[in-house]
Amino acid sequence: MWKGRFSQDTSSLVQQFGESISYDWRLYPHDIAGSIAHARAQLVAGLLTAVEFGAIEAGLRAIEADIAAGRFEFKTSLEDIHMNIEAELTRRIGPAGAKLHTARSRNDQVATDTRLYCRAAIDGLFGAVAGLQHALLGRAQQYAATVIPGYTHLQRGQPVTAGHHFLAYVEMLERDKSRLADCRRRLNVCPLGSGALAGSTLNLDRHAIAAELGFDAITHNSMDAIADRDGIAELLFVISLCGVHLSRLSEDLILWCTAEFAFAALSDAHTTGSSLMPQKKNPDVCELTRGKTGRLVGNLMNLLIALKGLPLTYNRDLQEDKPPLFDSVDTLRMILAVNTEMIGAMELREDKCRAAAADPMLLATDLADYLVTQGVPFRHAHELVGQAVAESIRSGTPLDQLDLAAIDPAYGPGAKEVFSVERALAARSNPGSPSIANVRAEILKWQAVLT
Ligand code: ARG
User: SS3 for 194?
Assistant: First the structure.
């Protein structure tokens, strides 16, 4: 493609070192869509005849069909997807193919292809995240009234419902969807026409090209457009954060599946056994989700570090943007699919949840709140209840069976009534709190939102 200036062939080691066709072949549908839009603008500008344009369009569509069918032979010597397609087009249709690259560079071509790839990837991920929200909503509905201890510092804190716990993840995923949509909006801008870095002396209709490719707008600075990989970085961040959310869900489920917690059971289809210990049932999907999230974060770092020292505009380092991008999209897609299936099939062990939620210590805060209603300042109430907790631990008498009036007369006869988990939950009725009525209302809201 650049033979005019050179008198030696590229070393085969350099070819191996520099090729990207082994992974960027995946851009082919976007590369072809971009080339057809570009050729149509050349036609309108009078740079191609209708016959030439027809040959280019048909030739590109035939190549697309061959690649899709696995019939296309990619050549490492042609470096990347852009040159593989262009060279094959010219081989098939002759001189018209050699006109396609007029007023274009691989720099604006790859920037365009990558944005189109990201846009399609975002649309796929958005649907997959919504699918997992549905699965979580199903469990929230099933266990809307199942009380479990809520934890801080992984120590039992206060009663919540499992429904509230599942809905916490629905909230996180909703924010992930909103970040995906936001990222899509910012990257759906067409860089084609920016050329190598300074546009072209042959001016094509950039707005028409952008419209044909479904972009919302065109970029306004050719140098920025060539050097910019913000959209990829943003997408890698959004994917990382979604992975982090699912890694936290994984950790919850891993704990819940231990004999020590025993709140949950994953299905046989979503767990693995041990080759040695016959009793084992391991939450590998959760562990792999947690483990693969490290890759997602690593991919984000990979790109940011590649970008941080680059002068304007294109530098070959930018070719390194695609392996982390493809890997993160593929990995999150898989994580979402397998977790959706697993959450759909999991069950809670309600007897174990009930037993854990019956711990009267979970209502120590409620006892302090009760004292506040009796006129005791909260700091003093906290101390009084702390003394009762210490006495309970010292004497081995459960908190709800202590003679509280003997500890302090401020405890009136109503103190005993604090020790009802049902009452305690029902009292948590402020918006955002886990009363069963609130959780059911939230479920109805999500069912309407997540159609
Ligand atoms: N394969 C290259 C990439 O992914 C395409 C752009 C090449 N441009 C260049 N000036 N060498 O970045």
Answer: coil
Q: Residue 250: is its pLDDT beyond 80?
A: yes
Mean of the pLDDT values across residues 259-285? Answer: 94
Strand partners, 218: 190
Tokens of 281: 């049932």
CA distance 409 to 222: 78
Tell me the C-alpha to C-alpha distance, in Å, between residue 178 and each of 145, 163, 214: 29, 23, 20
Enclosing H/E stretch for 298: helix 284-308
Report which residue type is found at 257.
C
- d(Cα 283, Cα 256) in Å, to the nearest integer? 10
- What count of residues does the chain have? 451
pLDDT at 42: 98
Q: By three-state DSSP, how is residue 195 classified?
A: coil
CA-nearest residue, atom 4 of ligand 1: 319
DSSP conformational letter for 129: H
Sign of CA dihedral 333, 337, 338, 344: positive
Give the start-end residues of each E strand in 87-218: 147-152, 155-161, 189-190, 217-218
| Mutational pocket test of ligand 1: of 110, 117, 312, 320, the residue with most ligand atoms within 8 Å of the beta carbon | 110
Pocket test for ligand 1, best of 80, 310, 315 (most atoms within 8 A of CB): 80
Q: Is the pTM of this model over 0.90?
A: yes
Query: Residue 357 has what pLDDT?
Result: 96
pLDDT at 439: 98
Looking from the CA of 275 toward its CB, the CA atoms found within 13 Å total 0
Residue nearest to atom 3 of ligand 1 (CA): 319
What pLDDT sits at residue 129? 98
**Residues 344, 341: Cα–Cα separation, whole Å:** 5
* Residue 200 in tokens: 């072209």
**By percentage, how much of the chain surpasses pLDDT 70?**
100
Sign of the CA dihedral with 405 first, then 407, 411, and 414 last: negative
CB 206 within 8 Å of CB 190: yes
In single-letter form, the type of residue at position 62 comes to A
Is the sign of the CA dihedral 114, 116, 118, 124 positive or negative? negative
- C-alpha of residue 320 to centroid of ligand 1, in Å: 10
Model confidence at 2, pLDDT cuts 50, 70, 90, reads: confident
Does 106 sit in the ligand 1 pocket, CB within 6 Å? yes
Burial of 290 (0-12, 13-18, 19+ CB in 10 A): buried
Bridge partners for 151 per DSSP: 156
Q: Which residues contact 21 (CB under 8 A, 6 or more apart)?
A: 74, 75, 76, 78, 79, 80, 81, 84
